[in-house]
Amino acid sequence: MAKPLKAGGEVDSWCTKCKLVLNHRIIAMVGTTPVRVECSTCNSHHNFRARAPGDKAPAGGSSRASSGSSSASSSGPRSTRGPTKAQQAVMDRERTWEKSVNGRAVSEFRPYRVSEIFEEGDLVRHSKFGDGIVTRLLEGKKVEILFKDDARTLAHGLVD
């Protein structure tokens, strides 16, 4: 019979840093189940994981999901949530960029040069960042240009 698990003891756990099932020291327990462990190889602290992600529990073995009485904990995948605030901001920015740039003629885009003077709403073609639109004029001869991947602050109106 196996020794009962206890804080300070050792257990095999999936290491989130090493990406392997390795020997770990138990830091915290809830009842008879380890919940927090320290990897003996890399010394990282993380939650206890009995097996690698994607591995199924042994057919006869017990797991935390099956020990609960709630049927929701063992019923298929979780419902997916909407995008995070950061993801939503990126999607909004891309949508704004697309509305501003799509359908415009190539001749409407001015090549970006530091010596050029831009106004809000001007379409710009940058050699590195691609097509963009001037969204704001900033102090100190700077403009904010919205490109597909991000808004960037660039200089304008400087004499060579």
Structure explained in plain terms:
The protein has helices at residues 64-67, 85-101, and strands at residues 10-15, 20-30, 33-39, 45-47, 110-111, 123-126, 130-138, 142-147, 151-155. The radius of gyration is 28 Å and the shape is elongated. Strands 5-6-7-8-9 form a five-stranded mixed beta sheet. It starts with 9 loop residues before the first strand and ends in a 5-residue tail after the last strand. The chain folds into two domains: 1-52, SH3 type barrels (Roll), CATH 2.30.30; 90-155, no CATH class. The protein is mainly β and 160 residues long. The model is unreliable at 62-76 (pLDDT under 50). The longest helix is centred in the middle third of the chain and has 17 residues, at 85-101.
Tag the structure with descriptive keywords.
single chain, 160 residues, mainly beta, SH3 type barrels, five-stranded mixed sheet, four-stranded antiparallel sheet, 9 strands
Number of helices: 2
Q: Largest sheet, if any? A: 5 strands, mixed
Work out the helicity level: 10-25%
Return the domain count.
2
- As residue ranges, the low-confidence spans are 62-76
Q: Report the mean per-residue pLDDT as an integer.
A: 81
Order of helix and strand elements from N to C terminus = EEEEHHEEEEE
Care to count the β-strands?
9
Strand order of the largest sheet: 5-6-7-8-9
Strand content: 25-35%
User: What gross morphology would you assign?
Assistant: elongated
